[in-house]
Amino acid sequence: MNEAINVPVIFGSDVFTEAAMRQRLAPAVYEAWKQCIETGSSLSLENANEIAEAMKEWATEKGATHYTHWFQPMTGITAEKHDSFITPTGDGRVLMEFSGKELVRGEPDASSFPSGGLRATFEARGYTAWDPSSFAFIKDGSLYIPTCFFSYTGDALDKKTPLLRSCEEVSREAMRILRLFGDTDAKRVIASVGAEQEYFLLPKALYAQREDLRLTGRTLFGAPAPKGQELDDHYFGAIRTRVSSYMKDLDEQLWRLGVLSKTKHNEAAPCQHEMAPIYSNAIHACDSNQLAMEIMKKCAAKHDLVCLLHEKPFAGINGSGKHNNWSLATDTGKNLFSPGSTPRQNAQFLVFLAAFIQGADEYQDFLRCTVASAGNDHRLGSNEAPPAILSVYLGDELNAVVDSIIRGTNYTDPAKSMMRIGVDAMPAIPKDTTDRNRTSPLAFTGNKFEFRMPGSSQSIAGPNIALNTIMAEELRKFADVLENADDFDSSLQTLVCQALSDHRRIIFSGNGYAQEWKDEAARRGLSNLSSTAECLPTYISDKNVELVTRHGIFTETEFRARYAIHLEAYNKLLAIEARTMLDMAVCQILPAVLRYTQTLTDGLLSKKSIGAACKAESSLIGKLSTHSDWLYDACEKLKADLQKLPGRTEEAALYYHDTILPDMQALRDQADTLEKLTAKDYWPFPTYSDLLFY
Ligand code: ADP
Ligand code: MG
Predict the structure, then answer these.
(1) What's the pTM?
(2) Is residue 19 domain-resident?
(3) For residue 499, is pLDDT > 90?
(4) What does residue 45 show for φ and ψ, rounded to 5 degrees?
(5) Same domain, yes or no, for 577 and 428?
(6) Is 561 domain-assigned?
(7) 444 close to ligand 1 (CB < 6 Angstrom)
(8) pLDDT tens-digit profile of 301-358?
(9) Are residues 146 and 170 in the same domain?
(10) Is the peptide bond prior to 386 cis by the omega test (within 30 degrees of 0)?
């Protein structure tokens, strides 16, 4: 048994929190820092020096010897480079020093991070700049300073900078609407996010025996185990001891780092689990999720486990996603997606709702692109939650409201009264309706939207940048109209009604898995981009470029760089997967199968010599030989096709999708058939049964 931990005491104990700052900084310095994060004013070097000194004192008291600028390059994971605090005194001793300059700016050797062409080779330097709104923390003996990462020419090279920009934008535009509704208290609007993280845990010893898991994070081969998830005996089931001690350890580490880990449970697939945090502002939620993913992996090693964050580690059972719960709230604590109790509050709610629906419809492709990756392609549109078609689920009550508002304009049913916004009260919308639709990619769940498309391994920066920016854009359009309206109420009515009826097609309550929905969605003109190769080109459409540049989220160059990086990542990943398959097939599977066939053949010949029956051997040898030949052919085809890759990245992506992936599947089919024909002792690596039911 671990000793009991005092959660309130350890929570955030490794974070240089606002409370720690208040305690350790001179009041004037603390105020200057507050000003800086609230109004964006800059910090003087003297103040930065004071903060650096206080941080260092705090960190060294806690045993830190190093500091690092911590940033989120476009690889989707975090990066760090550690420097110690030591400074020589000249007489052979050292002091522990840390200056404001070192706090504020860093210059990591950044030439190997993807830049999508943003950095010319002659100017490969990248810079990191302290983000004073995110708290520094201690991990593994280092003081971590959250930073933004940019190039010599000032282009953002990271995921954090555009996320910060998008939070500012959505706040600015939402405030315009709030002012129109007479809110004079709120100063800012905050995008709040809670990201539910799914993952798999496997025994390390078994993982180590599979090259595919080690190199690609997923199984590239593996016949289905005799048992899958059909009994639903894992979901919310009792957590086994080893996993439970892992989760306990994980929680403790996350809490120390101020990550609001709240819920843990077993997920649908065997060996699959989930950690859900309490929501916080989008920046903190994104930092927290990056930390959580890293700690999940590290912590697993301590428990002789491996944590898989891949979207689809195993064929045939559920993959892992990251439900991104998103909403907007004022700094005074009002959730803007909470239906209110008065007609006025309802009217404001409906403006935000209509803006969201309009945005989701207008920018379906953009949202889809932010979750596109080779890994996530195995989930979206592949018989798994959710489909690749973007739609919004509102629930019955809200649907009824939307219907009655829409009916108001076209008067198709004059018998039914229309809902007059700002005058009529809305029916109460229960926060948790029981018929919540689990297949919806973007579901309204009472006071927030749950975006279920993001993949388990990806950074949530991209999806939240998109949600914030799209919302900012629609609110901007609404505010432009409403600020100039002669009659606010009737203008409001027209606006909301127009938005809802124009974009009604994006609202869908039915079963998102069904083929009927695919047909229906096509009739509605919704886009259905089932793979990364197909969807990414829409990322840089004029409409999206216009959106992100208008709001200053990305320059066009920054935006195109991201497109190039995502596309390249897709190609590289599939190349690695294809080569790993070849390696395993040629060097492990085929030799094993041939050995087994040889044994059978020897046995058959001896048995024949004494006249014994040998139908089993003979039949098995036949099948093994046939499938071995087919496996060999499949390898040759994949190898040959890999030689024919087109040079241009866009064409290569399509080629990977249209040619290489089917080759890989054909190869897998042969290998999986052989697995079921080969004696267990001969099979060169652990099977699905071994891995999933250890
Ligand atoms: P469930 O979706 O299982 O019913 P909850 O509604 O409690 O569970 O929350 C799921 C996730 O959504 C949690 O991470 C939670 O912190 C987050 N969440 C709840 N309210 C909000 C909100 N207003 N904004 C963003 N995220 C939220
Ligand atoms: Mg949920």
Answers:
(1) 0.95
(2) yes
(3) yes
(4) -65, -35
(5) no
(6) no
(7) no
(8) 999 999 999 999 999 999 999 999 999 999 999 999 998 887 778 899 999 999 999 9
(9) no
(10) yes
